[in-house]
Amino acid sequence: MLVLGVTGLLSALLGSVAGSGGMAILLPVAVIYFGIHQAIPILTIANLSANLSRVYFYRRELELRVVGWLTLGSLPLVVAGTWLFTIAAPDLLTRLLGGMLLTLMVWRRLRPTAPRLRRAVLFLPLGMAWGFLAGFMSGVGLLIAPFYLAYGLVKGAYIGTDALGTVFLQSTKLIVFGSANFLQGAVLWYGLALIPFMFAGAWLGKQLLERVPEKIFAVLIEVTMLVAGLNFLLRG
Known about the structure:
The protein is mostly helical. It has helices at 2-18, 23-34, 36-57, 64-87, 90-110, 123-136, 141-151, 155-179, 186-193, 195-208, 215-235.
């Protein structure tokens, strides 16, 4: 619990400073302790609490039109992606997680520039693709990040809007997990126990947002993603 709590606090802090990427630190640690089928629901509970706190902290800067279109596109697909997760073999999921972490690391390094987005409705198709991937796996927030930036969202507006869209997505995932009996025993205990650490990390991140450059955290994210990705991909 100490290891998970400290890692959770760091991941929430990172998510509040950089806007995304925090789960890339906590996810590999949780998988090592619990395996993929328990780790993802635990992190969904924990990350939901962190995003709720970010929504509160940045409530005056939310771009609700973006959240509305993104949610409309993502919710049907996140149900499908989460359902596939509940029936897939753990070894396959762990290798997919390894591949996803390595892909996200390359994505983060290349920093693709999305075309300038001038209409919030364009987040409808983006939400569909993002929702399916987020339902099947955690830590894919980096994939949607360039499009928030292309719409003109920065700092508090970016972090708060991303958090609110993720709240709706993660709430839907929890409903599917509950219907598939994935929210029992250790999953509920550790997920709920991580909530204070996630709130504390989100609060600390808000205090550091204006003071700490994102580059300090970038190396930590990328090293974690590289080591964990190779381990999961090769060993399953």
